[in-house]
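Data card: per-record layout.
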Amino acid sequence: MFKFYKKFQAKSYLDNDLAYESTVQVKGKLISFGIQDNDYLSIHYPDSYSQVDLSEIKNIGVGSFIQISANWNKIGLPIEKFWVEVTRVVIIGGMPSYYGNAGNDTFVAPIDSKIGPIYPGCINRVYSEDYLKKVALPKLRHKQAA
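The structure for this 146-residue chain is written out next.
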């Protein structure tokens, strides 16, 4: 999909697994970590990963929720999927990168920790704010009421 960003070889459970470098801010300190390359994984491991449709990527904006897989191996923790609420989209050379807040507590970062950059090829899933308001939250409320 979008492949011009510099990559580094990530230490992970997959020998050939690539990741993009990103940061998360925890208690005022920036922690560097890898975000799994979902495009690569969806091609080489289609039973476990699927590529996000380009039309979904193009519609990501402030308020969207994107799921990523963080590779915490640089700090001795396993890979973890979690949601990020997009708070800013930056276009460099026609290519987007996303910044946001952790949508839930992670191994490393508590909810609302600042994360970025996140590149399009690293996104596992996309949910817009409209989807959350119209579909996901009503389902959750219904389950809680039952």
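Known properties of this structure: The helical segments are 38-44, 54-58, 129-145. Confidence is low (pLDDT under 50) at residues 1-16.

See the next section for split statistics.
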